[in-house]
Amino acid sequence: MQELSGYAIIILAAGNSSRLGEPKQLLKYQGTTLIRHITEAAIEAKCAAVIVVTGSNASLIKEELHSLSYHVVNNQNWEKGMASSIVTGVREVIKKHPNIAGAIFAVSDQPFVNVTLFNALIDKALEQKSGIVASEYDNTFGTPVLFSNKYFPALLTLSGAEGAKKLVKKFADDATSIPFPLGSIDIDTQEDYQKLLRNS
């Protein structure tokens, strides 16, 4: 049996940003786009693979990331909700990296996610031998969140608008967290985006 090796980072970037009115992945912040920022942070982290799950606006996102070393997979069912992108990402990881130790799920609209945070999630998983390590903000757990590969079957059962938080609660005994106060800042509306720009 081959030794399990490293963690993948799966960036969920398939949504059509209906509340924003334009692709949030391509919003500019501090000289780059949100999707390029998080993809570059993931590539820089000590992970084994970076997978970007696209859906709506797939060609625009691929164009934006054209020079980076990552793997893209298109979620044909992106309109069915977040869970379909999680399932697409997990299936791709299992197919391309069958010996992976686990995966971190991240979204493209948290502008303050960085390489330090990704590495902290991995370090915590290794130190604590935890199967789940979530980011903690606003008295809740959220993304980015790491799952060891033993949770891949459970992740594949998610459907509709369900996110991974459901599993963090279900398997709370095997979960730990790291503080990420800025995780509460995400971009869903033009108001959110303008506020981010004003405060930068």
| Major β-sheet strand ordering | 5-4-1-6-8-7-9
Overall number of structural domains: 1
- CATH topology, anyone? Spore Coat Polysaccharide Biosynthesis Protein SpsA, Chain A
Alpha carbon gyration radius: 16 Å
In helices, the fraction of residues equals 25-40%
How do the SSEs run, as a string of H and E?
EEEHEHEHEHEEHHEH
Q: Structural class per helix/strand content?
A: alpha/beta
Protein name: Nucleotidyltransferase family protein
InterPro entries: MobA-like_NTP_Trfase, Nucleotide-diphossugar_trans
Organism: Dyadobacter fanqingshengii
Domain MobA-like NTP transferase: 10-170
Explain how this protein is built:
The protein contains 7 helices and 9 strands, in the order E-E-E-H-E-H-E-H-E-H-E-E-H-H-E-H. Helices cover 34% and strands 24% of the residues. It starts with 6 loop residues before the first strand and ends with a helix. It has one domain: Spore Coat Polysaccharide Biosynthesis Protein SpsA, Chain A (Alpha-Beta Complex). With 200 residues, it is of the alpha/beta class. The chain has a 7-stranded mixed sheet, with helices on both faces. The chain has a two-stranded antiparallel sheet with strand order 2-3. It comes from Dyadobacter fanqingshengii. This is Nucleotidyltransferase family protein. InterPro entries: MobA-like_NTP_Trfase, Nucleotide-diphossugar_trans. It holds the Pfam family NTP_transf_3.
